[in-house]
Amino acid sequence: MCRSLSGDRDGPTLVAAECEGSTGLQVDVGVLVAHAPGTDPDQLQSFATQTSEDTVDEFASVTDVTWRFYLEDAVPLADHDKRRPSEFLDRATHQMVEGPYDLILVVTDVPLVSSKERFVPGLASPLSRVAVVSTNNLRNAPRNEPRRSLEDDAVRWNTATLVVHLVGHMLGARHRDADGGVMEPFQFDPDRRAVPPFDADVERYLHRIAAELPAAEARPRGLVARLVFHAASAVRNPKRVLQALGNSRAPLLPLSLPKLSTAALAPTLVIVFSAESWDVGFHMTNVTAALFAVVSIFTATLYLLFVQNLSFPRKRHRIVTEHTALVNVTVFFVLLLAMVGLFGLVWAIILVIELVVFPPNLMSNWPSLEEPAVGFVDLVRTGAFISTIGVLSGALAGGLESRLIISHLALFPDRP
């Protein structure tokens, strides 16, 4: 049974029609409006309210679960600049645990761009259960025509379609090419006046996972309890974490962070020509070199995680939701793989220098060597030792140019 509701609860206002399901489960969706300077927040909130009312029936009908949308206080933005969806992630995860909510929908009027700097109308993160929709992109009109208003029917129904499409992605539904349903790759249709339905296969899938929609939550006391909850959440959802890691291309992340890579590589180019570093590298065992590398990479990861404050939400809360825990676990492993990638990058460069630049018999004449023969394993071990120092210096001196890069690459895809 669906009915229109308006009223208050302890906190935000219930804005959408409540649609009751037959399973007794309930999904709470927080709606967060983020507006640029000069924008009337009430107008944008009214638009978000209309979108919620236009979509709630579709969600309830395919899941048999009660859906409720709650409107949070509007958040003013500092400027009109374009933004990545990860820039809303901190506020969204904060509201998710404050609600607590099972999903968060962010509606903004600033341009939205993907990780490839392409303008997009909206993106969703299945792992964090956060979707961001930009009315700026949806109001664009053909050349020589005025921009559409929020009251335009085409803007209204395309926004509703996009929200249903993104929530479908958050619940695990994939694109269905050329099937005419709502999971078809989103394109703005100026003649759209209704939300396309889910096709039969997607509907059966969403109905099957309905019991998983309400988010698990806990009130862990102390650091150990929080770590246990994070680990348990990852164990329950390994596929989702691994999929996010695969999409992030984490080992290649240092190529997108020149400050970090430069801080790691610069000292190694000096150390590689130092006799002391070669003495240490040649005389340490393979096990010692491997343990030194592992401990250093892990230490660099923890250092960046805490110094850059990459966990979500930034503010400590008594409640931790499973989605927030999965975000933190994923960001940690993305950062860990990025440090492994940085180690591999520096190691490869040092090894090339050892094999190509250094004369073949230079090291065999050093008096500190007990045996004059220098083998390939010796060069690899020494290169690994020098590269480990580079990873530590990169983390300590370089850091991350933007902490948003990791969360964006890990959580949000490139297209709606």
Specify the CATH class of the largest domain.
Alpha Beta
Strand content: 5-15%
Q: Globular, elongated, flat, extended or rod-shaped: what is the shape?
A: elongated
- How would you spell out the order of helices and strands? EEEEEHEEHEEEHHHEHHHHHEHHH
- Report the span from N to C terminus: 31 Å
How many strands, which pairing sense, and closed or not: the largest β-sheet? 8 strands, mixed
CATH topology-level fold name of the largest domain: Collagenase (Catalytic Domain)
Keywords: Membrane, Transmembrane, Transmembrane helix
GO molecular function: metallopeptidase activity
InterPro entries: MetalloPept_cat_dom_sf
Transmembrane segments: 287-306, 326-359, 379-400
SSE arrangement:
Layout: E1 2-3, E2 7-8, E3 13-14, E4 18-19, E5 26-35, H1 41-63, E6 66-71, E7 75-76, H2 89-98, E8 103-108, E9 122-125, E10 130-134, H3 135-138, H4 153-170, H5 200-208, E11 217-218, H6 223-236, H7 238-248, H8 258-271, H9 275-283, H10 286-307, E12 320-321, H11 322-357, H12 376-398, H13 404-411
Parallel strand pairs: 5-6, 5-7, 5-8, 8-10
Antiparallel strand pairs: 1-4, 2-3, 3-6, 9-10, 11-12
Helix pairs in contact: 1-4, 6-11, 7-11, 7-13, 8-12, 9-12, 10-11, 10-12, 11-12, 11-13
